[in-house]
Design brief:
Layout: H1 3-18, E1 32-38, E2 44-53, E3 58-67, E4 76-77, E5 85-90, E6 96-101, E7 108-113, E8 120-121, E9 129-135, E10 140-148, E11 154-156, H2 166-169, E12 181-182, E13 185-186, E14 190-198, E15 204-206, E16 213-219, E17 225-231, E18 243-248, E19 253-255, E20 263-268, E21 274-279, E22 288-293, E23 298-301, E24 311-315, E25 322-328, E26 331-337, E27 344-346, E28 353-354, E29 366-368, E30 374-381, E31 384-392, E32 398-400, H3 406-411, E33 418-423, E34 429-435, E35 446-452, H4 466-473, E36 477-481, H5 491-499, H6 503-518, E37 522-532, H7 534-543, E38 551-555, H8 561-565, H9 571-578, H10 586-591, E39 605-610, H11 618-630, E40 635-640, H12 647-650, H13 653-670
Parallel strand pairs: 35-36, 35-37, 37-38, 38-39, 39-40
Antiparallel strand pairs: 1-2, 2-3, 3-4, 5-6, 6-7, 7-8, 9-10, 10-14, 11-15, 12-13, 14-15, 16-17, 17-18, 18-19, 20-21, 21-22, 22-23, 24-25, 25-26, 26-27, 28-30, 29-30, 30-31, 31-32, 33-34, 34-36
């Protein structure tokens, strides 16, 4: 009787130690689950999976369906195309699924019968489309397509793939707008405009026009009009500037006067003319929700009483409650709100992120059941990739729906992050997370890598990051914290860091000190630092102001504010941070730039940048690397061609793996 438990313990112990360490190549085996959509009948959920393909350096994206009432119940793959299928949306009768696919080489709209049969393309041949949706109450679909800026709204006989003009064919670009590149894309003589296509008659209609583009839109529940956010105005110096309009099915457009120009989060209340709109800002303040009567054009600010931000609104069918996602101290939680007061309660709790991954920036991954009693969403924790869960709105109880990564997890030793808090000089309490190295042994000391998030208006927390697990498996501890300026902690916490980016330096150093004091296994003689975007800037700033770090990896950062302000795709951000233009205060621009302190750097530094990055242009990485080398610093520059600012999140698989390998190798070399 006593032998069996001992034998089982030996099996568990052996199993634990036989698990493989996580390596960069494991990226190819992890399945990303996203975009769940509940069927109108309430019995099924369609969603997407994305798996890196090492044979063709791309991603296999396909549609799946699963029963709503049992884990993996009735799990079935719907599409098998070796390209990309994504953004599935049920028809109102549940008989068809509309989705985007690159089967024809460019994104096009396809429809798959749920009762069986082959999918068919329904949008114009050879024309790339986006933001594909059903038009409520009709047999029509809507989408955004690029057309010449002189194209007028109205009925169209056909929609052709836009041909480059004669100058573009010669490689000549004539620029007449302030911002003319964004996310690796040249903003030329084309604009993205909203179209509808009647599936029964084949009639095509262009609803919007002009030298602006449609950024987002939402149909009212009767399908007779849409709220449209326009973006990319020639005179704008803010890539996020948007203006709101109401567009009728016949194309008549009425611009609405708004209390700001940074709008988003459109959501029509079911069965009404009431539209909820979020207004953002550049001052580090919480975004504000407004109730807009689209008939009268009147705006009314909503006092939520919540020191944070509600986003990704999902209405219950009767419009009596609305669900929202909120970032809270490293977690993403779902709230149920009264639409009259926008006061309510948390539905979910615990250390996890539901419906949102604060570092991967996917689309909203949350869908309500037809009766509004449950919702399906992605769930992620620090040691497990995203999967789907179903949550009861009333009780908050959740149950797993998918387990695509269970096999990989069974074979690999991932490490759960430990959360801790520490105080800074002001008396404020900050949150930190630490991932101990795999195989941690008592009495031994290990190197530690400080990872710094971008933004600064984002947050780290309860999420899975393959980069962190790779470093932990390579024998490094990983520390990450949310310095002031991060989201998820209220307005007073966020505001200072939004306007004084060097404030984070003290918070980050305090976090390192607190971790060293708390965890005896940290070898303070072997510290590394890494980060991307704002984290890349901070990495450069840190090694220019202290020699305590023995290795650094600075990625996609800003290193010279004066240069960046004239070439990045959000010049208004630099002016916001500096409070003045560089002509008004050139010394502040220089003194706030890491490149100004390159002569003080002693830390071996790896600089990683993408050649099509227009958020933090490649010239930033070039300048910082050259400055380091000219001052005798051991440095290396890695430039990734045909990649933008989002390389680490959506770049070509082989390049993402290469990046992870180089980061781990650099720290192994110097720590």
């Amino acid at each position: 009787m006593k032998i069996l438990p001992i034998f089982l313990c030996l099996i568990v112990s052996t199993s634990a130690f036989s698990k493989s360490r996580v390596v960069p190549g494991d990226f190819y085996d992890i399945v990303e689950v996203d975009d769940p959509q509940w069927s109108p009948a309430g019995n099924q959920i369609v969603f997407t999976t994305s798996v890196p393909n090492d044979k063709r350096d791309g991603y296999d994206k396909n549609l799946w369906v699963v029963g709503a009432d049992a884990p993996d119940g009735g799990l079935r793959q719907l599409t098998f195309d070796p390209g990309a299928d994504w953004a599935p949306r049920w028809s109102e009768d549940g008989r068809e699924i509309l989705f985007l696919s690159k089967r024809g080489g460019v994104p096009q709209g396809w429809i798959l019968p749920t009762g069986g049969g082959e999918a068919r393309c329904v949008t114009p041949d050879g024309v790339g489309v986006g933001s594909l949706r059903w038009v409520p109450g009709s047999r029509a679909v809507s989408f955004v397509a690029q057309v010449p800026i002189e194209s007028k709204s109205g009925p169209k006989q056909e929609l052709k793939k836009p041909e480059p003009g004669e100058l573009l064919k010669k490689g000549i670009k004539v620029v007449n707008r302030v911002i003319y590149f964004s996310y690796g894309e040249y903003i030329g003589p084309l604009a993205g405009h909203l179209h509808t296509l009647d599936l029964e008659t084949g009639k095509l209609f262009q609803l919007t026009s002009g030298d602006r583009s449609v950024g987002d839109y939402k149909w009212a529940s009767d399908g007779k009009r849409a709220a449209v956010l326009f973006k990319r105005f020639p005179e704008s110096k803010d890539i996020y500037e948007t203006r709101l309009a109401i567009v009728k099915r016949g194309g008549k457009t009425r611009m609405l006067k708004a209390p700001g120009k940074n709008l988003g989060g459109l959501s029509f209340r079911p069965g009404s003319s009431e539209l909820i709109v979020a207004k953002g800002n550049w001052d580090g303040l919480n975004s504000v929700l407004y109730r807009v009567d689209v008939d009268s054009g009147k705006w009314k600010r909503i006092d939520t009483g919540f020191d944070g931000e509600f986003g990704m609104l999902r209405w219950q069918p009767d419009g009596r409650r609305v669900l929202a996602v909120a970032e809270e101290r490293g977690n993403a939680r779902i709230w149920s709100l009264d639409p009259e007061t926008f006061r309510g309660r948390r539905v979910t709790s615990g250390r996890r992120q539901i419906g949102f991954h604060s570092q991967m920036f996917p689309p909203a991954a949350l869908s309500l059941s037809p009766d509004g009693s449950r919702f399906v969403a992605t769930e992620v924790v620090s040691d497990r990739p995203r999967e789907l869960v179903v949550v009861d709105v009333k009780t908050g109880k959740s149950k797993p729906l998918t387990s695509f990564n269970a096999g990989w997890l069974k074979k690999h030793r991932t490490v759960k992050a430990e959360k801790f808090s520490f105080k800074i000089e002001s008396g404020e309490e900050l949150d930190g997370w630490i991932i101990p190295p795999v195989g941690l042994k008592k009495g031994r000391r290990y190197p530690l890598v400080l990872e710094i998030h971008g933004g600064p208006e984002t947050m780290y927390g309860e999420h899975f990051m393959l980069e962190f697990q790779v470093l932990a498996s390579a024998g490094f501890g990983v520390l990450y914290i949310n310095p002031r300026g991060s989201t998820g902690y209220g307005e007073s916490f966020r505001t200072p860091g939004a306007t004084n980016i060097t404030l984070a330096y003290g918070d980050l150093m305090a976090g390192v000190d607190a971790a060293i004091k708390r965890y005896s296994w940290i070898d303070q003689r072997r510290l590394g630092v890494a980060g991307g975007s704002f984290g890349g800037f901070m990495t450069g700033w840190i090694v220019g102001h202290t020699t305590r770090f023995k290795a650094a990896v600075a990625m996609r950062g800003v290193y010279n504010f004066a240069a960046c302000a004239l070439i990045d795709d959000i010049p208004v951000w630099v002016e916001h941070v500096m409070k003045k233009t560089m002509w008004e205060d050139p010394d502040k621009y220089w003194d706030s730039s890491p490149v100004a302190y390159a002569h003080k750097v002693k830390t071996p530094t790896l600089v990683i940048h993408s050649e099509k990055d227009h958020r933090c242009p490649i010239s930033e990485g070039d300048q910082y690397y050259r400055a380091l080398r000219l001052n005798g610093v051991t440095a290396e520059l890695v430039r990734y061609g045909d990649e933008g600012h989002g390389l680490s999140r959506g770049g070509r698989p082989d390049r993402r793996v290469d990046r992870l390998e180089r980061i781990a190798a650099w720290f192994k070399r110097w720590l």
